[in-house]
Amino acid sequence: MKRAFVLFVVAMLYCNPLLAQEPDPDPNLLWVTENSYQRFLVHPNGNIFAGKGSTEVEIDGNTGTIIREFPYQVIFYDISPDGKYISALTDQRCVIDYETQEVVVRFTTSNTSPKFMPDNKTLIFNLEVPFSESYQLASFNIETKQQKISQNYFEKTQIGSPCVSPDGRFVATVGWFYKTQDEGDTHLLLWDAQTLAPIKILSENKGFREVRSIKFSPDSRLVGFGVYFDNLYLYDTDKLSLYKHYGKNNILNGVMGFGFITNDLIAVGSDWNQVLNFEIINMKDDKSIYKRNDFTGLAEYNIAHNTLIILRHNIFCFDFEKIMTGASIEPEIQNPFTVEYLNNALSIRNFTFANNQISCSITDINGRVIRTMNLNLSTGDIRIPLKLISGTYFLHIKDGSKEYVNKFLVVN
Predict the structure, then answer these.
(1) Which long-range contacts (CB under 8 A, 24 or more apart) does 300-306 make?
(2) In terms of CATH architecture, what is 338-410?
(3) pTM of the predicted model, to two decimals?
(4) How would you classify residue 73: left for phi > 0, otherwise alpha for psi between -120 and 50, otherwise beta?
(5) Is there a common fold for 12-324 and 338-410?
(6) Measured distance CA(232)–CA(211) in Å, rounded
(7) DSSP state letter for 198
(8) Could you say which of 152, 244, 326, 369 would form a disulfide bridge with 405 (CB–CB 3.0 to 4.6 Å)?
(9) Which of 270, 255, 191 is closest to 223 using CA atoms?
(10) pLDDT tens digit at each of 412 positions of the chain
(11) DSSP annotation string for 27-62
């Protein structure tokens, strides 16, 4: 009998009570739920849907308190980009109205996790091909009730839950390719979201492997696959080639869960031999922006509140802006300088650096480098002509082996 494999959106290690003790106090932490959960989704309004078993609740994204519990057994899979509909499982796969909690339409009994297209009315899911060992993609329109099924598919391949790119061009899935009834390989697959046709097998991994998460970057340029137990593969969707690979050889203890924060920043967590790690990485230079060795989890960025939502048994909410300033659980080091932006110039004053020359860079809230420079301190206070648009920025200074960061605001 064919072995069944399931794409786990949330790694069970994060739900293990033995690993569920709260981390040390963190100045970036805003709130943590009282109850434990197995999965979560971020609504466009900033609230959190959290589930355990067949129970779903809505949590206030500002406070972490429960707003409402859905009055019937249900599992949520996805939220439409406009926040109006929820893809879910009741007695079968269905669509639920966010405001009324009523089932709008039921459309399949297939074992799948339907995901919304950017048009807010079309769902993508997988179906088993009759009299075949293969699976194909299907779409369902909530308004017209019409279903479309792909004519082509990957032969002898059972596909897992699809992930739709934000621009609506691609669908990514895992594919278990069967050599025999019990032996095969794990393929990472890319499909055309409009035609539902296969595009490419991005990678072939020997043996059946669990793929715990599939996610696209906000600009759809990258797609990532978290392959159990310690690998993250990122592919360029335009070039259809490997962009980066993270594993135990180049990051933490391997990647057990990940999430895109921006197009350049990813949050990764790992737990190898009960050694916990969590890190936010700028993929441009692979440098860490934030790192902890007593915590881990599956992360999503909450754009409505500029927070980081992390599931590790309980749900934790972190202030992302504070993280970007360089705050951490380590004792804060007083910056030996002050910085001010005024009249299209950045001024550095009252500095007490150890060296006469320092290197510095200026980044925006998304980690994008605006400018880099080397400065000679023999002239006293430093004034750097620099025209910036309104927003939050960070000045990073390296003084020998020491590094400092200071936030400054630009108001035009």
Answers:
(1) 300/40, 300/42, 300/259, 301/42, 301/259, 301/260, 301/261, 301/262, 301/267, 302/42, 302/46, 302/48, 302/61, 304/42, 304/44, 304/45, 304/46, 304/61, 305/46, 305/61, 305/62
(2) Sandwich (2.60)
(3) 0.74
(4) beta
(5) no
(6) 10
(7) E
(8) 326
(9) 191
(10) 344 433 333 333 344 433 344 555 678 899 999 999 999 999 999 999 999 999 999 999 999 999 999 999 999 999 999 999 999 999 999 999 999 999 999 999 999 999 999 999 999 999 988 877 788 999 999 999 999 999 888 988 989 889 999 999 999 999 999 888 889 999 999 999 999 999 999 999 888 888 888 999 999 999 999 988 789 999 999 999 999 999 877 776 778 889 999 999 999 998 776 778 899 999 998 888 888 888 899 999 999 999 999 999 999 999 998 888 764 434 334 567 888 888 889 888 888 888 888 888 888 766 678 888 888 877 667 888 988 988 778 888 888 877 787 778 887 7
(11) TTEEEE-SS--SEEEE-TTS-EEEEETTEEEEE-TT
Run of H or E including 314: strand 314-319
For residue 156 the two structure tokens come to 């002898």
- In the chain, what are the domain boundaries? 12-324, 338-410
- CA 90, 94, 95, 98: dihedral to nearest 10 degrees? 0
Residue with tokens 């709008």: 104
Take residue 83 and report the two structure tokens written for it: 């926040």
